[in-house]
Amino acid sequence: MQFSKPKLSLSQIINMNVGFFGIQYSFGLQQSAVNPIYDFLGASPDQIPLLNLAGPMTGLLIQPIIGAMSDKTWSPRFGRRKPYFLIGALMCSLALLLYPFSSSLWMAASLLWILDVGNNTAMEPYRAFIADKLDSSQQPTGFQAQSFFTGLGQTLVNLSIFIFPLIFLGTTGSLPTWVYASFFLGAVCSIGSIWWSMRTTTEIPPGAEELAEMKASPMSIITPFIDIIQAIREMPKVMWQLALVYMFQWYALFCYWQNSSKSIAQSVWKTTIYQNNPVYNEAVSWSGLVNGWYNIVMFLVAFSLVYFAKKYSPKRVHAVCLVLAGIGILAFPMIENKYLLFPAITGFGIGWASMMGIPYLIVVGEIPKERYGVYMGIINMMIVIPMLIQTLTFGYILKNFLGNDSGKAISFAGVLLLIAAGATLLIKTKKVESDVYTN
Fold it and tell me: To which H or E segment does residue 176 belong?
């Protein structure tokens, strides 16, 4: 029997996604603050990709496993997805509290692994949580609410990177004092926002048939791996097509995040010295403001993309947004006036709003509801595999073909985003995709 999910108000959808704010604050610190910390600790540009290996590796291993486990989890008291939110948030908060005390590259890289495990443990069930709670007519709003909170959380990160250096002066240990303030605030946001969503939102209990299936095949150590392999074998064709888009899209994003502050230092401040250089500190601070702006754009446009996705189809909307992102990124390293970086990065903000929500709308209608968790984890594998490839290959490309030039790295990312836009238009979805969001 088909179960009709209750309609939720906008405030209920917002409450259930507040926890995504804390997760994305933590993720934003990884994007905008971790690489400058590596620079402060003496890393060379071609070492940065490998030092970011934690992100793709933990995402590849953790998210599909957690997704498969949450599909087979149910507690009348704690729910299906919420226990994983809580465990992940606690790990994130602990790692964020310890991170500023990093005194060496190996310590910072090790804590990044713990932070990423926590982020991935909390993040993956959130995608399935939306699919669990909302029917097809409300899923666009649910996924774009996550885009909204992604923008809000990462905006706070980047504003802290700009403002805190003006308030918290000097150095504590091996790092600037502002790093401590940003990471401590992140620890509070991580656990506090997850607590709010858990307190305000209940989960829909599995039906009798689904509970019987859980009891008939209880979870064991090998169960998640069997479920993942089986799900990949039976994966809808549209997900394979999305994987091609993600290969170019996420490789490009890692190139941007690793090189944005150095590109700004090079084009605006005319410096390539990153350690013990006050001028580079100014560039890092300004990059925080620029990245904060693209996240402001993201949460300003996130909900408007719901309208366009319903009217024109998610595939077309995502392709247009990727083109805007690619054009903005191509212009980025050519700009010498620091204020002109803001209009350039606006296109990236629109693209980022789409990336965090719209692709899920392309595929969710073809995923069986009892396997939302494992398939959302597999989608994340499609995100982290390009990141893993980037961390293993881009250091060589940057050193041997791009002359360790961070501006050229950003241009390379812009080209990849335009290729991703073309690949998006090649996706073939079932005819009902254009109708499912018009209920």
Answer: strand 175-176
> Among 320, 163, 345, 180, which residue's Cα sits nearest to residue 264?
345
Q: Phi then psi for 268, rounded to 5 degrees? A: -100, -50
Structure tokens at 291: 């990245």
Q: Could you report the per-residue pLDDT of 62-106, keeping only the tens digit for each? A: 878 887 888 888 888 888 888 888 898 899 999 999 988 887 888
Q: Which two tokens stand for residue 38?
A: 């590596």
Do 85 and 17 contact (CB within 8 A), yes or no? no
Q: Enumerate residues 6+ apart whose C-beta is below 8 A from 426.
A: 241, 244
What is the distance between the alpha carbons of residues 85 and 307, in angstroms, rounded to a whole number?
29
pLDDT by residue (tens digit) across 221-246? Answer: 787 788 888 888 989 999 999 999 99
- Ordered by where they begin, the domains of the chain are 11-205+224-436 (1.20.1250.20)
The pLDDT of 160-176, averaged and rounded, is 82
In angstroms, what is the C-alpha Rg of the chain?
A: 21
Condensed to tens digits (0 to 9), the pLDDT of residues 8-29 reads 888 999 998 898 888 888 888 8
Quote the CA–CA distance of 267 and 333 in Å, as a whole number: 6
Cross-strand partners of 171: 176
φ, ψ of residue 137 in degrees (nearest 5): -75, -25
| Rounded average pLDDT over 306-315 | 89
Q: What is the average pLDDT across 378-393?
A: 86
| DSSP 8-state code for residue 236 | -
Distances (CA, A) of 94 to 99, 189, 373: 9, 12, 26
Kindly state the tokens that stand for 216: 């008939």
